[in-house]
């Protein structure tokens, strides 16, 4: 019989619409602004009395508390508005002191029954949720200097193994200079080093009564080092951002030496900046013996006691690059420490260095690259000049009791917070070159809320105009199209929520465009039905022919648009990808609602009934 679906098809459509409704519901429950309190000493130590004091203090300050929730390692205080968050954090920090970390947060408010179905709201992008935008600049000269330091250390070890004597090593802008007692030692060193380091140009130089060898990086090698530095920094920054737990962050290269980092939803910008921009690394070195030549040693102060210092060997056993995992814990006296696991190469080097130096001291050197900014006048304009500098300090100097392997621990840290951040930086990897903040932009939650309001308003206006046109033009069939349009929007939101897609302003533009395109298929079908009625077909035959004969045109038109959306997604950046995602999902959901949902409504209304006239 014409215009009748089998029961299973109605049930399938109903099931899809029900699932779409359930998984779109969490978007009606926006996240609550909150303040999260955690203890630096591990475990939840904020007792009920302190919570009540906090409640009272916030009430006195006019800050309304929605709820207080205890989590396994923290206390979460839900607030009414984002305007109260910063004030609440400052008040709580003053009350609890330095033993606690008080951070801004956004707490989900999705009902538990929806959470039990793994239903969650859409992730909002930086322009809707607020957050921070960093433009970072990689110090390429520092990348070259670090590589030359590593190469020089390896060259010295190679010469010692081959018993080739050298006097001194100097590192220039892009070169290494080594002095020798005579030309024979220099020539032997040149033959040995040139085989292992083909990326240098070698030049013999005179050095008073001795001989010297100057090794300069080739242009190709410089490009390779700089390209490695930017790619390694990209990887490290992505790891650090993942450790921060930010949903849908953006970390991408911009130009030859810059990196863009966008962190949606991050409100504690100081903490994010400290983690993202930290350039801390570790070096493990042996303490120098009294008879070690001065050219092979370096003296560093202790990080916690600048008045103390120790003289270390210039050669490095391993760096933080060899760390495979790191975690914060506490020693038997309750002091913070970092437990470290090394990779295979790092464990071998550590074992080789310690098994032959039992009873000798080994130091852990903490290295941090920083900058000082100063303002100078150039051509009558104030210009900010950035002066990079490096701080090196010993955080641990301990006697080697036995040969170390892949696992050991670092002590001597100031606080649990410092231990946690050091463990995070070691887990995520060290930067291949220092990075500096060239630009910092913060988008507040209030601006994001304003963008959401305008986006929702644009969707409502677009929906209203489309509905008005369809009702005036197609009467009862316009009602079917309007209901399908609402269901299409529900399905689109549900699918984006289920896939964890990020909604941005361009994504909202894609939704508005989808609404217009969604009725395009219905217009083709309804106009086709009108044509069939004008040719003299019965109502049932006209409806059947309208849907059947418009099907090919609808699929062809939407497939070409879908292909364009896929191309945009594959070659576009963040905002363009957001537009492409919503457009692609919108096309698929509109095909379902236009071809199946409206057909089911028409079948239930007119199918199998003696209808003489059709209001269309």
TrEMBL record:
Alphabetized NCBIfam families for the sequence: 2A0604s01, secD
Cellular location of this protein? Cell membrane
Question: Is the Oxidoreductase keyword given for this protein?
Answer: no
Q: How does it sit in the membrane?
A: Multi-pass membrane protein
Q: Name one cellular component (GO) term.
A: plasma membrane
* UniProt superkingdom: Bacteria
UniProt keyword list: Cell membrane, Membrane, Protein transport, Translocation, Transmembrane, Transmembrane helix, Transport
- Alphabetized InterPro entries for the sequence: SecD, SecD-TM, SecD/SecF_arch_bac, SecD/SecF_CS, SecD_1st, SecD_SecF_C, SecD_SecF_C_bact, SecDF_P1_head
The record places domain Protein export membrane protein SecD/SecF C-terminal at 438-600
Q: Which Gene Ontology MF annotations are present?
A: protein-transporting ATPase activity
Instruction: Name any one Pfam family assigned in the record.
Output: SecD_1st
Q: How does it assemble?
A: Forms a complex with SecF. Part of the essential Sec protein translocation apparatus which comprises SecA, SecYEG and auxiliary proteins SecDF-YajC and YidC.
A GO BP term here is: intracellular protein transmembrane transport
Sequence similarity? Belongs to the SecD/SecF family. SecD subfamily.
| Parts of the chain that traverse the membrane | 455-472, 479-501, 507-529, 550-572, 578-602
List each copy of the SecDF P1 head subdomain domain by range: 299-433
Taxon lineage: Bacteria, Pseudomonadati, Pseudomonadota, Gammaproteobacteria, Oceanospirillales
Q: Which residues form the SecD export protein N-terminal TM domain?
A: 2-104
Q: What is this protein called?
A: Protein translocase subunit SecD
Q: Does the keyword Transmembrane apply?
A: yes
Q: Which organism is it from?
A: Halomonas cerina
Main localization is: membrane
Q: What does the protein in this record do?
A: Part of the Sec protein translocase complex. Interacts with the SecYEG preprotein conducting channel. SecDF uses the proton motive force (PMF) to complete protein translocation after the ATP-dependent function of SecA.
């Amino acid at each position: 019989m014409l215009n009748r679906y089998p029961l299973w098809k109605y049930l399938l459509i109903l099931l899809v619409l029900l699932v779409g409704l359930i998984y779109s519901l969490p978007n009606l429950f926006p996240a609550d602004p909150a303040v999260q309190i955690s203890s630096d000493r591990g475990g939840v130590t904020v007792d009920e009395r302190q919570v009540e004091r906090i409640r009272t203090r916030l009430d006195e300050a006019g800050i309304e508390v929605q709820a207080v929730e205890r989590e396994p390692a923290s206390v979460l205080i839900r607030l009414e508005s984002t305007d109260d968050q910063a004030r609440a954090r400052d008040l709580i920090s003053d009350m609890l002191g330095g033993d606690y970390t008080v951070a801004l947060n956004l707490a989900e408010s999705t009902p538990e029954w929806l959470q039990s179905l793994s239903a969650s709201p859409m992730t909002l992008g930086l322009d809707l949720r607020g957050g921070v935008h960093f433009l970072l600049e990689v110090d390429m000269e520092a990348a070259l200097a670090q590589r030359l330091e590593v190469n020089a250390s390896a060259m010295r070890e190679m010469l010692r193994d081959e018993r080739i004597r050298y006097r001194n090593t100097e590192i220039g802008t892009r070169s290494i200079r080594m002095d020798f007692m005579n030309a024979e030692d220099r020539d032997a060193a040149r033959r040995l080093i040139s085989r292992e380091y083909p990326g240098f140009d070698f030049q013999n130089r005179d050095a008073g009564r001795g001989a010297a060898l100057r090794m300069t990086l080739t242009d190709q090698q410089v490009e390779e080092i700089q390209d490695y530095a930017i790619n390694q920094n990209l990887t490290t920054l992505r790891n650090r951002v993942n450790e921060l737990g930010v949903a849908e962050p953006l970390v991408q290269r911009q130009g030859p030496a810059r990196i863009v980092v966008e962190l949606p939803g991050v409100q504690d910008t100081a903490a994010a900046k400290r983690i993202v921009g930290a350039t801390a690394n570790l070096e493990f070195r042996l303490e120098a013996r009294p008879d070690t030549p001065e050219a092979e040693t370096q003296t560093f102060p202790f990080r916690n006691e600048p008045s103390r210092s120790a003289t270390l060997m210039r050669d490095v056993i391993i760096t933080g690059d060899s760390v495979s995992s790191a975690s914060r814990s506490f020693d038997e006296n309750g002091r913070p420490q970092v437990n470290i696991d090394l990779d295979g190469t790092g464990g071998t080097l550590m074992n080789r260095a310690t098994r032959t130096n039992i009873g000798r001291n080994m130091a852990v050197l903490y290295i941090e690259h920083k900058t000082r900014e100063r303002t100078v006048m150039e051509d009558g304009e104030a210009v900010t000049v950035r002066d990079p500098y490096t701080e090196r300090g010993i955080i641990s100097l301990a006697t080697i009791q036995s040969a170390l392997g892949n696992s050991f621990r670092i002590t001597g840290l100031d606080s649990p917070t410092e231990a946690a951040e050091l463990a995070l930086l070691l887990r995520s990897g060290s930067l291949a070159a220092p990075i500096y903040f060239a630009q910092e932009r913060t988008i507040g939650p209030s601006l994001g809320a304003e963008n959401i309001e305008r986006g929702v308003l644009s969707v409502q206006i677009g929906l209203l105009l489309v509905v008005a046109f369809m009702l005036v033009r197609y009467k009862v069939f316009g009602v079917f199209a309007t209901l399908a349009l609402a269901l299409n929007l529900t399905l689109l939101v549900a699918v984006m929520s289920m896939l964890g897609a990020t909604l941005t302003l361009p994504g909202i533009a894609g939704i508005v465009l989808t609404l217009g395109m969604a009725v395009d298929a219905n217009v083709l079908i309804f106009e086709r039905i009108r044509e069939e009625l004008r040719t003299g077909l019965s109502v049932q035959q006209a409806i059947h022919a309208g849907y059947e004969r418009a099907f090919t045109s609808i699929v062809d038109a939407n497939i070409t648009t879908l292909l364009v959306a896929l191309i945009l997604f594959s070659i576009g950046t963040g905002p363009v990808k957001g537009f492409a995602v919503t457009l692609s999902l919108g096309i698929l959901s509109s095909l379902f609602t236009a071809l199946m949902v409206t057909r089911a409504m028409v079948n239930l209304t007119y199918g199998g009934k003696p209808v003489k006239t059709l209001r269309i």
